[in-house]
Amino acid sequence: MTSAPRTRRTPLWVLGAGAVAVIAAVLTALAVFGGAALPERAGPPIEELAVERTVLTPGTIELALRNTGPDPVTVAQVFVNDSYVDFAGGDEPIGRLGTDTLRLAVPWMDGQPYTISMMTSTGLVIEHVVPAAVATPPPDPDFFGLMVLLGTYVGVIPVALGMLLLPLLRRASSTVVRVLLALTVGLLAFLAVDAAAEGFELAVLGGGAFGGALLVLLGAALAFVVLMAVDRWLATRSATPEGGSSSGMRLAAMIAIGIGLHNLGEGLAIGSAYAVGELALGTALVVGFALHNTTEGLAIVAPLSSARPRPVALVVLGLVAGAPAILGAVVGAAVNNAALAAVLFGVGVGAILQVIVQILPGLRGEGRTVDLPVLGGLAAGVAVMYLTGLLVAA
Amino acid sequence: MTGSITTRRGFLTVAGGTALTALPLPAGQGPHDDHPPGGSSDGGQGGSGQGGSGHAPDAHGGINGATFRGGAGVDHTFNGFDPRTLLREFDLGTTSTGPDGRTVREWEIVAEDREIEVAPGVRFPAWTFDGRVPGPTLRCTAGDLLRVRFVNRSEHPHTMHFHGIHPADMDGVPMIGRGIISPGEEFTYTFDAEPFGLHLYHCHVGPLAEHIARGMYGTFIIDPPGGRPPADEMVMVMHGYNTTFDGEGNQLYAVNGIPFVYMNDPIRVRRNELVRIYLVNILEYDPINSFHLHANFFDYYPTGTRLESAEYTDTVVLGQGQRGICEVRFPHLGKYMFHAHKTEFADLGWMGLFEVVEP
Lengths: 394, 359
Hints:
The complex is a heterodimer.
Chain A: H1 12-37, E1 49-57, E2 60-67, E3 75-80, E4 84-85, E5 87-88, E6 99-105, E7 114-120, E8 125-130, H2 141-163, H3 166-171, H4 174-205, H5 213-238, H6 244-275, H7 283-301, H8 311-322, H9 324-335, H10 338-359, H11 372-390
Helix pairs in contact in A: 2-7, 2-8, 2-9, 4-5, 4-6, 4-7, 4-10, 4-11, 5-6, 5-10, 6-7, 6-8, 6-9, 6-10, 7-11
Chain B: H1 76-79, H2 83-86, E1 94-97, E2 103-119, E3 122-129, E4 138-141, E5 145-152, E6 161-162, E7 186-192, E8 197-202, H3 208-213, E9 217-223, E10 232-241, E11 252-255, H4 261-264, E12 267-270, E13 274-281, E14 288-293, E15 298-302, E16 311-313, E17 315-319, E18 323-329, E19 334-339, H5 343-347, E20 351-357
Parallel strand pairs in B: 2-5, 4-9, 10-13, 12-20
Antiparallel strand pairs in B: 1-2, 2-3, 5-7, 6-8, 8-9, 10-11, 13-18, 14-17, 14-19, 15-16, 15-18, 19-20
């Protein structure tokens, strides 16, 4: 690094190319000779399949399979609830991480559980359980319209309602604002833990081929870093002219983005749950989510008590936080992929953590300490989320 | 297996064109005929080497009942045995007359490990007698002197344990008499054929359940001294395959080696002719098995040790090792199902069809 510049040195690209060439040569030699030097695996082939999507139409159950194991898998026969069935697809062995779709001829009954047993060419049986058979909604405009409505109910409207509390905040003392910010941190922390737990659960369902629980952590880390960069960028842009109120706006924007990313995952979960018939729609769900997510709206406007944002800016903030629920519901219902959902939940977790990191400095009072009201606010935030969460059965 | 949901069946409407694949009637009718393989069954379909049945995918499936994918059959040529002919194969051994005038009957039976296609596309590492599951049907007459030369070419220790009456050292169990026959070794079991009836043989090496579940069993018939009335005779060995080797039930159930095989190729019988079924249950891991015949009744001779029918019925239930002779005449033409009336087993492969034709 610090060697004398005068001596004649090999150009950097030559060094780099040389190193790459050596690495490539050794890897090739390893692949050709090294592999042959080791014995084959002693045990039988390891056959694993994950069902990434189940589509039920009258008389048919369709399974989207992914080979999550190291060896090719051939599905030779399938029995459903202990009865062999005719099916199409899966004619060729499925290679590692490869996919295939089986269409089973099953005269399934509404609401009945079905155990689908896929017998591989070696006689191994890989089971997939459909807890209760429900016709998968067809991906038509009506269905997507319903998902948009659902996303609006559980995402956009509650956030907007929460933001209506802004005028009250303006009249409040600085202590009240700090308590409200603490409340926000509490509820965000709750969301982060809740989303992480749900993400890990989904990651297990995904079969682990793409990293399992690691997916959640990766998504979280990535979101955290990206949002940090976005925050720095916003800071450099708005540092000069305005000052105080803009930093409140910036924080609100960051919170809105974080909550938006979280709602993307939440919408996804709601959409997939609906697609597999596990979601009880209706007043309870909508009201539950409304109460639950209204607190999110409050979180967005909490930093704005001293700012004078234009109404358009508020609408944009509300959409940034709430609209991803719509996108999530549509994607979740259409794709219903556990691994993708796990990543998105992770992204939500990372985004929320980043927002928490941003808000924390604002919680300190006059004496630069975290006082009792703030701690109370934190606890209240967690409690409110827990209690309103009980209203949501999804 | 548990939690079954049986499917309504309506097979009898199966397209008439599939009847082309049915086996021809046996050439001879004597009870001791060793029928030639019915190779002509493939003639109508081309691809005579394949041996599997090329049925239209819409033949079964869905509400028409259980089926393998596309109604396909296995590669009998690869397996080296064909349930469609094995059905009527009786191995009488080679006979000679002993110094005392008795018939001496000899067989050579070879144990070998063999991979067989138990369902289309599914290979099962079987342990076999003579390379087939079930093993050959050994048939003799009461009072014969039997010599069974057992050669173990498997990688595992085995024995041949016969049901019947014989001395302890000919019982084919470990630690008694010659005991276990190790790989590469051989032993000749010598005993008298008694009592007359329908019996079975199987390997008796531990773990016993696995040695049986892997395919080491066969039928052993001792005819009564005067024989039985002439009939169209066939053997049905009821068994299963625990392809996952978890020792908890079976994933496939069958008669004579291959699930669903007689659904694709119905067993042809003649109207009003006496049909005699030697029915043996050797199913491992499940406590019972059963046999049910549609639209007809049969006389049942438990273990075949009495010449009088014990029951006139259409369903019998058998535990492992139980067996009996069913005698039936079909008065009407058409196709008639037979299957386990443990219907879950039926949906997992243990079902078939008789097709009654004009004499």
